[in-house]
Design a protein that fits this description.
Structural class: alpha/beta
Protein name: Glycosyltransferase
Organism: Phyllobacterium zundukense
Strand content: 15-25%
Oligomer: single chain
EC number: 2.4.-.-
Helix content: 40-55%
Number of helices: 18
Keywords: Glycosyltransferase, Transferase
CATH superfamily of the largest domain: Glycogen Phosphorylase B
CATH class of the largest domain: Alpha Beta
CATH architecture of the largest domain: 3-Layer(aba) Sandwich
Largest sheet: 7 strands, parallel
């Protein structure tokens, strides 16, 4: 089967959708399929993307079709993107579109329909209620100008969890949903590095412990909530610092101003984006992972933290209740006091935190791996497959075992 993934950018600084697209493509390639990725990605983006993914199993099997970074006209008209899509989609069996609000994605759907190639759209959380309120008028106009047609005429929409499927309902889209989560390659987490990353990079004292935030510095990630929560933790836990790792998504400046106002800047370390081995070293070295996000589809960062044995404190808006049901961490409301209380609970109970870490590793390794996720997507692509009966993550994961 020739499978073509289309995503607007492969820059790892854009967050989880890029990481998931690359790993899903690699896992499908490992199953023997002819897998291609079409995306914008100039020299610098390509370098970052390939460096961050160099340890991804089967990465070398994926066929890449990268366009130069788009100028303003290309962003609007997608002339080069359309030309590339027409070439790559020849003889394609299925097109998997990642994201929603980019002309190249709409062009991919149009090209697929013109050639009678079935396609799916994976919104990666971009259509839920919170996301739709951001630039609301612009998105509603876009739906009228072809994006609703792109969504309605898809064979199915890939949702990452049951909550995302439910949150799509107000849009009254015609395409059915197929719930398939993100995952990990076990090979990337087999030989985890030793401790010492933060002491080496930040010159922290040996007794210092770290709460780690690892994601884009974006408003939706709840950095303002995290800052207020850490103000409380810093006062009661003098041996704990906060490390914020990730590329700036527009919220760095306001976060820096906030921690200055709260007089905790000396306890907060912004270290920028980290990838590959450095990311694993950071996850292994932390005492607690915290992501008080206002919206997530299926966070790659949470999954990787769990795979590294790191107890997690996340918001209920992350839509990952399994973290709590598997006793791998705590799920809390979007409130600084609740976040602070949960993080303190993890820090103050090392035996419980250790058990949470082990439970998280078990949860991810038994349920969320790219090989089984790739098999589920291939089942969904099949011409005779009706996605309607498969509407829950638990049923989909179970299906991979048979």
């Amino acid at each position: 089967m020739k499978i073509v993934h289309v995503i607007s950018s492969i820059d790892p600084a854009q967050g989880g959708p890029q990481s998931a697209c690359v790993r899903l493509a690699a896992a499908q390639s490992a199953l023997g399929h002819d897998v291609h990725i079409v995306s914008y990605g100039g020299t610098e983006v390509e370098k970052r993307a390939f460096t961050s993914a160099q340890d991804v199993p089967f990465f070398a099997l994926v066929h890449w079709h990268l366009l130069d970074d788009p100028d303003r006209m290309e962003q609007i008209l997608c002339v080069e993107g359309s030309r590339q899509l027409r070439q790559v989609l020849k003889a394609a069996s299925f097109v998997h579109i990642h994201g929603v609000w980019e002309p190249i994605l709409r062009k991919a759907a149009n090209t697929a329909r013109s050639n009678r190639i079935p396609y799916c759209v994976q919104p990666h959380g971009m259509l839920d209620a919170w996301s739709m309120k951001q630039k609301q008028l612009k998105k509603r106009i876009a739906l009228l100008l072809g994006y609703r047609k792109m969504l309605d005429q898809a064979k199915f929409l890939v949702t990452l969890n049951n909550d995302e499927s439910r949150l799509l309902q107000p849009l009254r889209l015609k395409a059915p949903t197929l719930t398939i989560p993100n995952g990990i390659f076990l090979e990337e987490f087999t030989d985890l590095p030793g401790a010492g990353f933060f002491r080496e990079r930040l010159s922290l004292a040996h007794e210092k412990r770290v709460v780690l935030f690892l994601s884009r510095l974006h408003t939706k990630k709840g950095l303002d909530i995290l800052a207020d929560a850490f103000k409380v933790i810093a006062a009661s836990h003098p041996d704990v610092d906060l490390v914020v790792a990730g590329p700036d998504g527009g919220a760095r400046e306001s976060f820096v101003a906030q921690i200055d106002r709260l007089h905790i800047a000396d306890r907060v370390h912004l270290i920028g984006p980290i990838y590959g081995g450095d990311k694993l070293r950071a996850l292994v070295d932390a005492s607690c992972f915290c992501l008080p996000s206002r919206q997530e589809g299926f966070s790659v960062a949470i999954t990787e933290a769990l795979a590294c044995g790191l107890p997690a404190v996340i918001s209920d808006a992350c839509h990952f209740p399994e973290v709590e049901t598997a006793n791998a961490g705590l799920v809390v409301p979007l409130d600084p006091a609740d976040v602070a209380s949960a993080v303190a609970s993890v820090l103050d109970n090392p035996e419980i935190a250790s058990a949470m870490g082990q439970n998280g590793q078990r949860l991810v390794r038994e349920n969320y791996t790219w090989p089984r996720i790739a098999e589920l997507t291939i089942q969904g692509y099949a011409p005779n497959h009706d996605p309607k009966p498969l509407s829950s993550t638990s049923r989909l994961v179970a299906a991979a075992d048979h």
